[in-house]
């Protein structure tokens, strides 16, 4: 038995003809078309790309990039940083983001918005308001985005980095001000209420880079205060080195006790020199060049495989998002699957071997018995079944599935 | 204006004769007899001493020790470590502890019990129980001690070191087991409810050595969950070096936002070599000899003065307890005011200069006016006023006081 049995369904297919008689002793072919597990990535250049703002060579380059992206991933994070989404109050970037979400959706991707409330990159114009007005603007903003995007984006990082939020002291900002006044728990309660009110069926996350006992206690406090948290977001930006299996499992153990799905929302393993350990805020590390190296790429691939295996093996983990698809994004880091000159790195192929290989039913030929029945076991997700030139689809969502197919 | 104005009362004394006429132009002498602020110390040898278990030279030594103790302190912490208080189930050490509390009370000390629930030094016989039985025994124990000692001890460290409690992994123990199952907030809720039920007017503390954001968030979660916390206990065992004013103030700022009294429950500054910084759990540091040195004693005195001044200057701090009175107690550290050979260290005299000097009205001669009125300003606490051979007492508890005295 593998470590991944909880990711699989044991399926009984009962296949009939249109007239209701069983399709006996027939060959059918089953193919997986999508994972139930969310394998995701954040690549914000998808916004200009999907809005057809690129031209010539640039456009061609990104066509290849997103072809690769969609071959591997079924989940994408889109940027809703308030400072960029609505730099001028009342002029949100809704149309471009909608077009991007629609495009991703049409390609089979689930889309998540990130983040609705955060002290970093929050709207600078909040600074002119008093705290009551800031809170009002923040909640209005949440209601607006969550309701306007409902149907396209039904999953949101509602609030980001609450552990540090009220004590964040690098610069004054509206969100730290209100978090200081309300306290963490009341602010989280307010922003979650606004989001849930705007889309009761949405999936709403809290997200943090702090994986210490402080975040754990915060979640416990929120749950005791009656906040509905649909998933716990854990960042894992490992610019200073891979955590290793043991630390990852220790974190999983601590956060899984809440019995709430865990999303690894921001996973980074770089393919260049590691950031020095003495850097406390990753944003403080500024380099002109941060090259991807051959040894780095080998290490990155190996560590990413270990990390994905560790997470996929844990039943509470429902999503992993890589940060980002291309090198040279945040911190100019060699964090991507593709180098600046467009070369696909080993990490891509190694994860592909898992996600679309070991953990995937590429093509399975089954033969039905006298009753038109065939059994198999496969990773949960969407499937296509064909018999000669006829085709239909089904979903595997539970440990055991009984599925009737009519050809 | 000093940093300590919030510790003082501005008093108008209105002094009359028994016949109701004002005592005009008369000399009265005011003396402080006790601080409102709790200046405390933990010295557990008080238990055998107060129970008259010592003999000969030992007894004489401790007579001097506790004379010194009572000259400086108005507050004492007594040990209720479950493993020692009730090593055999059903045979608690109640009588000895009661006698100790009575003795301290008779000497003018407020007494606090420490701790009612803690994973360290908890009853070993809990290990034979299931979690429901452990919780039941824990709550029963709390109800028993808090109600049996009511009137003698009305202040308790109800629960100790909750931040680490469910992840404490040095050895199996009953309290970690139930904290893991219930979660921190629910366990704290239960133990506080039991304590409050047993003595509704008691003062109940949570106490921790963890001063990080994790403890802060825990308190926020507890308050949101409706737990009545009467004071926040902060340990400050500085065996690895004095925190300094800045760190102390940063902690005070973070924990004072709850608007709940803060007690510095366990303050240690040693007068010997510092414990190496790499030691994480202070209990891991074992030495045969840990001498008090002349330079160490000078440093200890200076740092203690800074620490007490910083804490006394902060309006939310209501108590400071030193840990312990004599060298060679916990960890065999030179942490006390008195060396192993009975010499009183500079730290004692320096704190005496503050507590019974700078912050104390030793003797104030006032002259009443035509209306029998006299004004003065003094540190809050208990006072004695005398006029010739007559004497009475009053208390200063508020910023402004108007007190009528009849001689």
TrEMBL record, chains A, B:
Enzyme class: hydrolase
Molecular function GO labels: endo-1,4-beta-xylanase activity
Domain of life (superkingdom): Bacteria
Pfam families linked to this entry: Glyco_hydro_10
UniProt-recorded name of the protein: Beta-xylanase
Keyword Lipid biosynthesis belongs to the record: no
Keyword list, A-Z: Carbohydrate metabolism, Glycosidase, Hydrolase, Polysaccharide degradation, Signal, Xylan degradation
GO annotation, biological process: xylan catabolic process
Record family assignment: Belongs to the glycosyl hydrolase 10 (cellulase F) family.
Residue ranges of domain GH10 in the record: 56-354
Reaction catalyzed: Endohydrolysis of (1->4)-beta-D-xylosidic linkages in xylans
InterPro entries, A to Z: GH, GH10, GH10_dom
EC number: 3.2.1.8
């Amino acid at each position: 038995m593998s470590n991944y049995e909880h990711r699989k369904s044991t399926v009984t297919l009962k296949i009939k003809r249109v007239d209701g008689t069983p399709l006996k002793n027939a060959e059918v072919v089953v193919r997986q078309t999508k994972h139930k597990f969310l394998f995701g990535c954040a690549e914000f250049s998808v916004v200009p790309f999907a809005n057809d703002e690129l031209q010539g060579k640039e456009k061609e380059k990104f066509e290849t990039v997103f072809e690769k992206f969609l071959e591997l991933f079924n989940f994408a994070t889109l940027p809703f940083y308030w400072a960029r989404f609505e730099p001028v109050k009342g002029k949100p970037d809704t149309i471009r983001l909608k077009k991007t979400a629609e495009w991703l959706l049409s390609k089979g991707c689930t889309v998540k918005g990130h983040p609705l409330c955060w002290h970093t990159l929050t709207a600078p114009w909040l600074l002119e308001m008093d705290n009551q007005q800031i809170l009002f603007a923040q909640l209005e903003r949440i209601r607006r985005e969550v309701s306007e995007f409902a149907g396209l984006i039904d999953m949101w990082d509602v609030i980001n980095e609450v552990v540090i939020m009220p004590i964040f002291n690098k610069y004054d900002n509206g969100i730290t001000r209100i978090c200081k006044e309300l306290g963490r728990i009341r602010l989280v309660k307010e922003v979650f209420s606004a989001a849930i009110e705007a889309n009761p069926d949405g999936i709403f996350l809290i997200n943090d880079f702090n994986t210490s006992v402080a975040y754990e206690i915060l979640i416990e406090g929120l749950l005791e205060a009656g906040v509905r948290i649909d998933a716990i977001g854990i960042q894992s930006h490992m610019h200073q080195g891979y955590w290793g299996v043991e630390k990852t499992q220790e974190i999983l153990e601590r956060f899984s006790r809440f019995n709430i799905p865990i999303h690894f929302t921001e996973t980074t393993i770089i393919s260049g020199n590691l950031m020095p350990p003495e850097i406390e805020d990753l944003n403080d590390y500024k380099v002109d060049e941060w090259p991807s190296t051959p040894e780095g790429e080998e290490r990155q691939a190996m560590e990413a495989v270990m990390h994905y295996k560790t997470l996929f093996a844990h039943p509470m983990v429902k999503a992993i998002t890589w940060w980002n698809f291309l090198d040279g994004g945040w911190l100019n880091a060699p964090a991507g699957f593709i180098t600046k000159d467009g070369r696909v790195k080993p990490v891509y192929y190694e994860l592909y071997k898992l996600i679309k290989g070991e953990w995937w039913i590429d093509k399975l030929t089954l033969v039905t018995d006298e009753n038109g029945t065939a059994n198999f076991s496969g990773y949960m997700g969407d499937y296509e079944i064909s018999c000669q030139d006829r085709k239909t689809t089904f979903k595997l969502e539970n440990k055991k599935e009984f599925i009737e197919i009519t050809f």
